[in-house]
Amino acid sequence: MLVRILADNPGKSFTRNIDLKFTTTVKELLRDGRDASVQQILRETLENFETSKTDDETLTTLRNMWRKEK
Predict the structure, then answer these.
(1) What pLDDT is stored for residue 3 in this prediction?
(2) How far apart are CA 29 and CA 9, in angstroms?
(3) Alpha-carbon dihedral 8, 4, 68, 24, rounded to 10 degrees
């Protein structure tokens, strides 16, 4: 949820720090996370990024990972 808030405000100044290591960690959390509520928030956030953050090129690796994991 915090990632979603920070992606909206301040926006690209935050998301430029999302790198391959962060994307890999999110992927592992999606696959192996045990808490259903964390999984749900993460999926909602990634879905939001896919639909509303298409102009933010710094989220490309995260969006591509999400498309493959769906």
Answers:
(1) 77
(2) 24
(3) 110
Q: What CA–CA distance (Å, rounded) separates 19 from 62?
A: 8
**What is the C-alpha to C-alpha distance for residues 41 and 56, in angstroms, rounded to an integer?**
20
**Mean pLDDT of each 10-residue bin along the chain, 70 residues long:** 72 82 94 92 91 89 94
Tokens coding 44: 């909602």
5 token code pair: 């808030």
Q: What is the pTM of this model?
A: 0.82
The span from the CA of 40 to the CA of 18, in Å, is: 20
Amino acid letter, residue 56: D
Residue type, 49: F
